[in-house]
TrEMBL record:
Family: Belongs to the complex I NDUFB5 subunit family.
GO cellular component, as recorded: mitochondrial inner membrane
InterPro entries per record: NADH_UbQ_OxRdtase_B5_su (IPR019173)
Record protein name field: NADH dehydrogenase [ubiquinone] 1 beta subcomplex subunit 5, mitochondrial
Function: Accessory subunit of the mitochondrial membrane respiratory chain NADH dehydrogenase (Complex I), that is believed not to be involved in catalysis. Complex I functions in the transfer of electrons from NADH to the respiratory chain. The immediate electron acceptor for the enzyme is believed to be ubiquinone.
Record has Coiled coil as a keyword: no
Coiled coil spans: none
Keyword field: Electron transport, Membrane, Mitochondrion, Mitochondrion inner membrane, Respiratory chain, Transit peptide, Transmembrane, Transmembrane helix, Transport
Membrane topology: Single-pass membrane protein
Location of the protein in the cell: Mitochondrion inner membrane
Length: 190
């Protein structure tokens, strides 16, 4: 499909080029397709015109994606509609629980429900988990607000804002200070 437009362009230009030069005779009648050339006399000018490269590239890409995408998808849709067809409603046997994709009528919709989308029960459970998490966060925010209000009411100490210190860096500083003290001693003068 991509090369058809290029072939059509070259074929069409070659067809007219060959016929323009010479008139032809059919049943003793002269037919002239175009004006004969002047054998090189006259001005040699070339008409300036915008490039058609972008248009030809667009056509080629359009034909390519039609061949790659629309035709196979159209063939699959045609096959499923003609040879498989919609599901028929039938009574459910005893002891059988239908799967979630079996409730859809069209085969393509059943395929999408089975292999692409999640189970509706799974979606419901995920949503309920989200609601539970938000409820837990709301409870924690309410408790934190209550603690703040009690601290403000009683003018309590700042224990709620206490952040424990990491002693690792204090030990490193103390060790560096001890090393300097051992090297220099008590007699340090500035």
């Amino acid at each position: 499909m991509v090369s058809w437009s290029a072939l059509g362009r070259s074929f069409g230009t070659n067809l007219f080029k060959n016929n323009v030069k010479t008139p032809f005779i059919i049943q003793n009648v002269n037919f002239s397709v175009g004006k004969t050339l002047n054998a090189g006399h006259g001005q040699k000018t070339m008409a300036l015109q915008p490039s058609r490269w972008q248009w030809h590239k667009f056509k080629d890409m359009f034909h390519y994606y039609v061949m790659i995408g629309l035709i196979p998808v159209g063939a699959i849709i045609f096959y499923t509609n003609v040879f498989i067809g919609p599901a028929q409603l039938a009574p459910i046997p005893e002891g059988y629980e239908p799967k979630h994709w079996e409730y859809h009528r069209h085969p393509i919709t059943r395929f999408i429900a089975r292999y692409i989308h999640n189970n509706p029960q799974q979606e419901y459970e995920k949503f309920m988990h989200y609601i539970d998490e938000e409820a837990q966060k709301a409870k924690l925010r309410a408790l934190e607000k209550e603690v703040h209000s009690k601290m403000a009411e009683r003018q309590d100490y700042q224990a709620y804002y206490y952040r424990p210190m990491v002693n690792k860096y204090h030990r490193i500083e103390k060790q560096a200070g001890d090393e300097v003290y051992e090297r220099i001693g008590d007699d340090f003068k500035e």
